[in-house]
């Protein structure tokens, strides 16, 4: 097999990893929400009204999935105050959490990402992975010197 392989790494919450995976991959709605977020930009606001208008699912379906994704820490919910036709209106918005960004990035082709996003992703992946490995090695009693030696070997 000559296909290029990418090391997709996702850090899942320890107590709810099955629920998170089921919420994302159990229906096309969450995947469509994540794809919509990617089109907007991984750090941009997602308006509930836009999702309902663009995705073609019922209000109830979109709202149920937004609620589940928020409860599982994939999205963060916000309320935004705005003026519309002389009236104060509250709009519900969502942003991807770090976990949500990881899932969204599983769906994008590398070629479609701006270089700045790739750099940010590489830094965040490295930091998260190093933190996780450090915590694991502390539990296992592995000396940090061993890890530093491996790091230096691999960075040559």
Q: What can you tell me about this protein's structure?
A:
By secondary structure, the protein is an alpha+beta fold. The chain folds into two domains: about 5-110, Arc Repressor Mutant, subunit A (Orthogonal Bundle), CATH 1.10.10.10; about 110-155. The protein is built from seven helices and three strands; from the N terminus they run ααβααββααα. The protein has a three-stranded antiparallel β-sheet. A hairpin with a 2-residue loop joins strand 2 and strand 3 (about 85-95). Helix 2 (about 30-40) crosses helix 5 (about 100-105). The longest helix has 26 residues, at about 115-140.
The strands making up the biggest β-sheet line up spatially as 1-3-2
CA gyration radius, whole angstroms: 19 Å
N- to C-terminal separation?
Answer: 28 Å
Q: What's the number of helices?
A: 7
CATH homologous superfamily classification of the largest domain: Winged helix-like DNA-binding domain superfamily/Winged helix DNA-binding domain
List segments where confidence is low: pLDDT < 50 over at least 5 consecutive residues. Answer: none
Give me the CATH architecture of the largest domain, please.
Orthogonal Bundle
H-E order: HHEHHEEHHH
Show the helix and strand layout.
Blueprint: H1 17-25, H2 28-40, E1 46-47, H3 48-55, H4 59-71, E2 75-84, E3 87-96, H5 98-106, H6 115-140, H7 144-154
Antiparallel strand pairs: 1-3, 2-3
